[in-house]
Amino acid sequence: MIERKDTIGTVLTAITAVAMIVSLYMVFLFAPREATMGDVQRIFYFHVPSAWLAFFAFFLVFVFSFLYLLRGGRRWDTLAAASAEIGVLFCTLVLVTGPIWAKPVWGVWWTWDARLTLTLVLWLIYVAYLMLRHYMADPERRATFAAVLGIIGFIDVPLVYFSIRWWRTQHPQPVMAGGDDSGLEPAMLATLLVCIGTFTLLYLTLLRYRLKLQALRDEVDTLQDRLEQAG
Amino acid sequence: MWRAITTILWKDLKIELQTKEAFGASFVFSLMVLVIFNFTLDLTSEEALKMGAGFLWISFAFGGVLALNRSFALERDENCVQGLQLMPVDRGGIYLGKCLANVIFMLVTEIILLPLFAVFFNVDITARPLYLLAVLFLGSVGFSSVGTLFSAIAVHTRMREVILPILLLPVTIPVLIAAVEATAFALGADTDPSFWFRLLIVYDVIFVTVSFLTFGYILQE
Amino acid sequence: MSGESALLLTRNLTKSFGRFTALRSLSIEIPRGESLTIVGRNGAGKTTFLKIVSSIIRSYTGDVEISGKNLKNSDDDTRRKIGFVSHESLLYKDLTVRDNLAFYARMYGVARADERIVEMIRRVDLEAKRDVVVRALSRGMKQRVSLARAFIHEPSILLLDEPFTGLDERASEILDRFLGEFKSAGGTLVMVTHDIERGWKLADRVVVFEKGKVVHETSPRGSSFDEFRTEYRRILYD
Fold first, then answer.
1. Residue B146 is part of which domain span?
2. Among A121, B36, C2, C138, which has the highest number of CB atoms less than 10 A from its own CB?
3. What residues of C are in contact with residue A72 (Cβ under 8 Å)?
């Protein structure tokens, strides 16, 4: 039955909200102004954690997919789907914040270096994963097929990354000065870590609500069935 | 298992010989892609040689998707998939048979396309012919290995043929990169071949193995 | 048909598709040589039952045993014993009659395949069309080829899913004949049908599926068709 009170969800949201406020303070007021890039560098505190979380989420899609194929059970499939959705969300954030940061700093919107390209390819693979799920009606089959795709997609990640890296040595791009992790002051490091923690909390909160949403959907479906059978 | 592989291969080849659907569609489409390159890019033959490897594999990839689509589309008719599900054979054997058939279809298209490519772009393709054939083979295996698996997936979705390239192209990027680099060497470029060829072999092994192991999940209900 | 026959049983067989439960804790025993007809309305679980027994559906809870071997642990040999006749032909439209049969014969490891193919073509009376592609055949002829396909590996367990639907007279006649021969050779038969009259005639036992369970069981030896039909109607329209 639907619970009116979701204690864990509420607590999680509260903690995340607090963490967000702390992070915003640290990003804009606590962290020092970067020497070469200026204030625009503060995007880094959103960009990097988003990237970490995107990869983490996709790694979890792999784990949940594997567990689904091994053990069965709708739980794993729902977790995989939720993680993929949140992963695509964070991945989109990375792809949006990246160019915004790159243009003023490097003068170009985009470079085809290994990390950026990998993020784009990752985005494509997991959007394809979501599309596959969207275009399948049978829930069991959808779960199985999505799980297979989730596994292959993640195995592909290191292959794509290294291929692009090695290819780049043949076709080098102009070198960008001032990499994003060249010499982090302790204050900056602290801010970064706090942001990563906040984004992780955000991931968990979103995951929780997505699972709740699925439970509600299932509840509606069951009620609908009962109504139909009652005639 | 061996019996399953050869029988499925025989069946798919026989059907193709009868209808010529896979080859026809993929050849014509690949050819069109090459022609469109010419119109949109207007290259000198020097530039064409440098970028030729890329053109070739783009056109092979798009043509390949058409052939792969057909691979399981023909099983959907009259619910032949159910016939396959009933058979007392290893699912992996069915996968390998179909994969081999798709590799052959891709190879045939590629080999016929090569001389046309040489003519259209005034490129010499005889620089290192054995290497060229090896790349075509290894690249086609890599592409078809995941392609056959995804074709089986795509056939059960609402979007059928449309979803196959969306799924396949991002995942086969490593294969395409390696194939293009190795082809550049085969067309006469001054690079180190061994690295990319070895990489192609590694990718082929990984993709064939993973697809082979997971195919059973796709074939069952 | 081969003399070997089999015993089929399920224990607490449950299968759900998402939130829809097709089979609920179904337990049934089919002794060797029996002809069982399964009737019931759409969605009662009849086809799902056949698909599980034939290994098309592989994820379910409960036990299914064929000849004492649990289906989940069994190997290809068990599947080799099973024949499936459905209203779909399972034929490749661009292959000839002979090639279609050759494909199935080879995949099932049929011994002396060429002879067997010739024999089956003769028995469905399609010798004149043996090198014609299936696409060019009439519907009735296609059905006959499909019957040849289903019986080519001499199954000892036969599963039929609405086999008489849309069959023309000639094909119907041939199927009747094949089934008669199959039964007298001791084969085990499970047929799902809406044609309760035909189902009754062919059966040793008739069960009614409703909402994934067996709700009624009867036999032509014990009661009359009219009694059964009355009871069946009562169940359906209750």
1. 2-219
2. A121
3. 59
